[in-house]
Amino acid sequence: MEYDDTVVFIDSSVLISCGRRQSTRFQALAREARQRQTVFRISPQVYAEVTGDRSLNEYTTGDYAVDEALEEGWMKVTESPSYSNSDISTVMDQARSFIASSSNRSEDIIEKADTEMVGLALELLLTDTADRVVLVTNDIPLGEAAESLLPQYGFDTEQISWLRGGDLADELGEDFVPEFD
Amino acid sequence: MATREANWDTPLNTGGEAFELLGNARKAWIYTYIQHHPSTTIQDIVETLDLPQRTVYEYVEDLEGAGFVHQSNDGRPAEYRAHDIELQLVDGETKRQITPELVEAIARRTRDEDIDTFIDRHGLDGLAVALEYAREYADGSVTHQIMAREQELSPLEAGVILDALRPVFED
């Protein structure tokens, strides 16, 4: 694998949000990738989630925009995390417990696959494929899980950060109905 | 009735106007706009909502009659402020609340097609449930996948409605 200084993961919650305002929000994402001279990563699970349900075309969500981004080359789908590596498998289980606890739910309602991004982030750091990882998600418990758990594997807190979509690019945080802002 | 003038400030009369708000997105929009912009005038509303002045006058009068807004100055043009709406509805095991947040969610359907679609698919009760998740989502105590599994929606649909409703709680 190629070495990258910083790798940015985009979560399904953010891609769904971008799909709702395809023209402006996806353009903003593309611009951020260009400015950071990076290719955003999405996990196979995220890709399946945002493109899997085409029966929901009543909504404005632009699932094809993700495929366009992949074709244009500023986003790519990663491999699945190496579940066989015990650190990676463990951090994903820990993320599951973390999310269950912050949402005051039973762990049964959270699937290990929901935490793929955390496993992938750890894998990049462990294999020295990246020096720093950024996780972009609007699912706050997931972002907090990453930020709290990953440093426990021997990394500095500066090497791991999570952002909401609106922190990555202003357009992603704008309200659809500015009159109520 | 002993009194000559009916007292309209009673739960069932207020409730009637609250139900009217649930079914009238433009009236809900006016209430929400006044709530977000204290000291709003009719002219402000006419300009931002692009509705006939006559309709705005009529709707504001209805809202004032139900006690949901009141005139906040003595002079002209009249300025309006909103009061919180808090009504509880119990139907057997099911409890619903009519709140300013629910009214705002309905108002948003006029500008956000995804909320409109969600209401068409799941009704106002579905919207009220989604709004509770949106509150938790904004607080950071739920993910869209959890909502999807608990409500038997696809994660995509849960993500769409949470993204659409999140701003209601993010002021």
Termini separation of chain A: 45 Å
Structural class, judged by helices and strands of chain A?
alpha/beta
- Form type of chain A: globular
Largest sheet of chain B: 3 strands, antiparallel
| Domain module tally of chain A | 1
What portion of residues of chain A is helical? 40-55%
Succession of helices and strands of chain B: HHEHHEEEEHHHH
Low-confidence stretches of chain B: none
Can you say what the CATH homologous superfamily of chain A is?
Answer: 5'-nuclease
The assigned CATH architecture of chain A is: 3-Layer(aba) Sandwich
Provide the CATH top-level class of chain A: Alpha Beta
Structural class of chain B: mainly alpha
Q: Quaternary status of these chains?
A: heterodimer
- Contiguous low-pLDDT stretches of chain A (5 residues minimum) are none
Defining key terms:
heterodimer, A: 181 residues, alpha/beta, Rossmann fold, 3-stranded parallel beta sheet, 8 helices, B: 171 residues, mainly alpha, Arc Repressor Mutant, subunit A, 2 domains, two-stranded antiparallel sheet, 59% helix
The gist of it:
The complex is a heterodimer of chains A (181) and B (171). With 181 residues, chain A is α/β, with parallel strands linked by helices. Chain A is 46% helix and 13% strand.
